[in-house]
Amino acid sequence: MESIALAVNETQRVAQHKKALVAACVGNFIEYYDFVIYGYFASVIARLFFPADNEAASLLLTFAVFAISYASRPLGGLIFGHLGDRYGRKTPLAVAVMLIACSTTVIGLLPTYSAIGIASPIILTAARLVQGISVGGEYGGATSFIAEYAPPGRRGFYTGWQTFTIGLALLVGGAVASIITGALSAEDLRAWGWRLPFFAGLPLGFVGLYLRLKLEETPHFSSVQQTAEIERTPLVTGLRREWKAILIGMGLIAAPSACIYIYYIYSPTYLSVVLGFKLADAQRANLYSLIFYCALLPVFAHLSDVVGRRPLMLVSSLAIMLVTYPAFHLLDPHDFGKTVAALCLMSLAFAPHSATALCAMAEIMPTRLRYTGLSVSLNIPVTLLGGTAPFIATYLVSRTGDLYSPAWFVIGAGLCTLVAAYAYKETLHSGLR
């Protein structure tokens, strides 16, 4: 009878792990799908909300709003991180997913500049700021939630699914953008077609809210609650006692910040506006590279549970530095196949680190400070490098005349990550703190 009871308990425990993983990943997908579709339709939004005689100026203003939304991500991380480390992971994550759903719906319904004038870009900016607060609270919270539910020996694989859902959100957003762009005329796309992906925000948000409210608190945080080890000021304590871990975490996320936003979010605009691809072809090429990238992530996440986190991060960050510039030279509007191969080559260099970094960061943070520590480590580099990446890339091309200059931005971020990966001490066998 005792063996049967143990088997039942083990089955329930595994089911709870899977349920937690699905809820965290579904919510994570919703957050990032809502957040990134703005980038896919940046060239359309530029003409509708920021009219200017110079097309480059309109696009710069559009990406400036893209960057401004990232300024609110650290604020969201601090607010939600404090709540998550004081009161638990569950409720802040539920609130985050509804915030972004509502703000995304506002963007989809927003009248253009020609209809309501200056109020239009102001409301657009406000909605993007709310999205930034939401995603800032989501990032560290979802990582904490998944890592604290993951079974020993499979933490790399479990947390790798969070990265997978970010890639999947990019993929689905890209697929939706490609279908809409290919199916509609340019006039219909500008008139109403670009709004369609934004309308999915609210129903998806309710799905994420339902799944997250059904979850129990993580066992690691519950243990901290039971032993009265809750931190009253997690940010102050984290900065004072865990500053080394936070700095290493910031370095580890530098390359992902640049790569995700240059390789996958900015690339459709780069290929179409800078290199002269048809927008539909640019989005399709990006879509193929995202499929390849997503397929690689579970493989490398599993491998990190075998060989460790550090080797994959070192090799990947070095590969990013060596591959990016030559791959940019292969992007050719007259050779679609070579362009897809170049984008996939960059994905292959990036995927090992992308699949591994979140787990490594979660393992170097203590449970009582993990939500806040991860939020700081994740959101500051993403704000400084990811949020500004499309703007900086557009500026570099416009200012220097070098079509391949965005590659140097990625290489610089890769160097920061290489240094951090070298400083990181392997945590494969040490478990969560």
What does this protein look like?
The protein is mostly helical and 433 residues long. It has a single domain (2-423), classed as MFS general substrate transporter like domains (Growth Hormone, Chain: A, Up-down Bundle), CATH 1.20.1250.20. Helices cover 83% and strands 0% of the residues. The chain is built from 21 helices and no strands. It has helices at residues 2-40, 42-49, 55-71, 73-87, 90-109, 113-116, 119-149, 155-183, 186-191, 196-199, 201-213, 219-226, 234-241, 243-252, 254-274, 279-307, 309-330, 336-363, 370-386, 389-400, 406-423. Helix 1 (2-40) packs parallel to helix 8 (155-183) and helix 4 (73-87) packs parallel to helix 7 (119-149). The two termini are 35 Å apart. Mean pLDDT is 84; it is low at 1-8. This is Major facilitator superfamily (MFS) metabolite/H+ symporter. Residues 20-431 form the Major facilitator superfamily (MFS) profile domain.
Brief characterization of the structure:
Keywords: Cell membrane, Membrane, Symport, Transmembrane, Transmembrane helix, Transport. The chain has a single domain (2-423), classed as MFS general substrate transporter like domains (Growth Hormone, Chain: A).
